[in-house]
Amino acid sequence: MAGTCIFAEIYDENTNVYKYYSDGAWNVSSSGKSVPIINPTTRKTHYKVQACTQEEVNKVMESSKAAQKLWAKTPLWKRAEMLHKAAAILKEHKAPIAECLVKEIAKPAKDAVTEVVRSGDLVSYCGEEGVRILGEGKFLTSDSFPGNERSKYCLVSKVPLGVVLAIPPFNYPVNLAVSKIAPALIAGNSLVLKPPTQGAVAALHMVHCFHLAGFPKGLISCITGKGSEIGDFLTMHPGVNCISFTGGDTGIAISKKAGMVPLQMELGGKDACIVLEDADLDLVAANIIKGGFSYSGQRCTAVKVVLVMESVADALVEKVNAKVSKLTVGPPEDNCDITPVVSESSANFIEGLVMDAKQKGATFCQEYKRDGNLIWPLLLDNVKPEMRIAWEEPFGPVLPVIRISTVEQGIHHCNASNFGLQGCVFTRDINKAILIGDAMETGTVQINSAPARGPDHFPFQGLKDSGIGSQGVTNSILMMTKIKSTVINLPSPSYTMG
Ligand SMILES: NC(=O)c1ccc[n+]([C@@H]2O[C@H](COP(=O)([O-])OP(=O)(O)OC[C@H]3O[C@@H](n4cnc5c(N)ncnc54)[C@H](O)[C@@H]3O)[C@@H](O)[C@H]2O)c1
C-alpha cells in the first residue's frame, strides 16, 4: 500500500528508493546513494531513502528562503485554509502512512492509525489557533512610563522568523513532525524537515499530503540522509532561522553548535511516578501499565521509575505483575502490546541496563526474555540508586521500582535526575499532591494519572537536560514568531476624551 496510488510519485521505481522533497517536487539525490531502513521486526531492510548531499541541502535552503518571503505575504486566513486542507488529506490517507509506521518503527497497527489522525487534528488546530493569536497584536501608549506624554503609539505584532528547521525523533515521526510544521507555516515561516531514519518513509508520505494540499513550492522541504553527512551541516547552516528538535542527547550537542537562533528542544526524560500510602492502587497499576509499557516504553513521557512507599509496595507490585502477565508480546501487525524495540543497538542498550541491575541485586518480577529486537515486559523491584536503571532512560519495556520510606526520598530521587520532563503523583489527598507536585523539578506534574504529552494544545516542556522552551500548539506558534514594534510619533500629545 505504501508508495502506491496517490503516493506513487514519491517513489523511484528504477532504484526502489523513496525520493526527497525540495522546490515543490520529488527528487532523486545526485549522490546515487541511499540509506536503508531496517524493519525492527524482521531486522531486514524494508525501505530505502535518498542520501542527500550538502549541495542539495544548500539548494533547499535557498528555495526555502525565497518561498518564505512570498508566504509571509499570504493572508492568515488563507494559510489556515491550506492547513485545514492538508489535515483532511492526511486523515483521508491514514492507512498507507500508518502502514509505514508499522514497518519502520514497529508501532502497533492501531496506535499507528491513531498517530496519523491525531496529527491531522493537530494541523487543523494550528490553523484555528493561529488565526486567533496571530490576528491580534498590542497597542501601547507612551504616557504610562514616567516622564512621557501621550505622544507615542506603539503597535506590536508577531512576525515570522524565516526558515524553521524541524528534526523529530523516531517514536512519533509523523506527529512530532507536524507539531513543528503546522505552527511554523501558520506563523508565516517556511520549513525544512529532516526526519529520523526510522520513520523517514512515513514522514515523506505525510509531506506529500502537504504537497497535495497545494502549498507553494519551496515552502516545505524534506531532506533525508545520514546524520554524519548532513546533520551538523543542517543545524549549523546559516540559512536556518530557528531549530525545533525532539530527540535524545543529540539535542544537547545541537544546542551548543547552533548559531544565534531560537531553539525549541524537547529531549529525554526519566519520568518518576511517586505513589503514596493512600493511593488507589488499582488506578496506579493501570497507569503504570499504560504509562510504562505502551509502545514498549519508547515514549519520552513513559513512566520510567516508580517510587513507591514501602508499606504499599508489595500490594502495588503484585497488582502490576498481574497486569504485566496479560500484556501481549509480538509483531506490530498483530496489534500486540509489546512489539520489537526500534533497533538492535537499542535492544542491546536495554539489555545492558537489565544486566547491570541483575548484577547489583534487583528483584526480577519476570524472567528476562529477548528474541532479536523483541524484549518481553519486565518489572524490576528493589532497584537501588547505584543501579544504572535508577537514572538512565531505557526506552524499552523495562520498568524499575524503588521502594521509599518517606515522600521526601521520592522527591529527592526525582530532583536528583539530570532530566526534568514530567512526573506524576498518586494520592487521594489533593493538598499533599499539590505540595509534592510543586516540589518536583519537572516541566509538568500529573496528579493521579501517568505522564502524557497530549492533548496537543497543552503546554509541554522539560527542565534541565529535558529541554529548552515550551511546546504545545499555542506556545509553538508563539515561539516561531518574533515581535515587531511600529511606533507612531505624534508632533504633539493626544489624549482621547471618550
Ligand atoms: N521531550 C520530548 O518531547 C520527546 C518526545 C519524543 C522523544 N523524545 C526523546 O527522543 C529520544 C528517542 O528518539 P531518537 O532515538 O530518535 O533520538 P535521537 O536524538 O537519536 O534522534 C533525534 C533526531 O535527530 C537526528 N539526528 C541525529 N544526529 C543528528 C545530528 N548530528 N544533527 C542533526 N540531527 C541529528 C535523528 O536522525 C533524529 O531525526 C529519547 O531520548 C526520548 O526521550 C523526547
TrEMBL record:
GO cellular component, as recorded: cytoplasm
This enzyme's EC code(s): 1.2.1.9
Active site: 266
Lineage: superkingdom: Eukaryota
Matches recorded under CDD domains: ALDH_F11_NP-GAPDH
Keyword rRNA-binding: no
Gene Ontology terms, MF aspect: glyceraldehyde-3-phosphate dehydrogenase (NADP+) (non-phosphorylating) activity; lactaldehyde dehydrogenase (NAD+) activity
Subcellular location(s) per record: Cytoplasm
Catalytic activity: D-glyceraldehyde 3-phosphate + NADP(+) + H2O = (2R)-3-phosphoglycerate + NADPH + 2 H(+)
Keyword list, A-Z: Cytoplasm, NADP, Oxidoreductase
Keyword Oxidoreductase listed: yes
Residue ranges of domain Aldehyde dehydrogenase in the record: 28-485
Primary residence: cytoplasm
Family: Belongs to the aldehyde dehydrogenase family.
Entry protein name: NADP-dependent glyceraldehyde-3-phosphate dehydrogenase
Species: Papaver somniferum (Opium poppy)
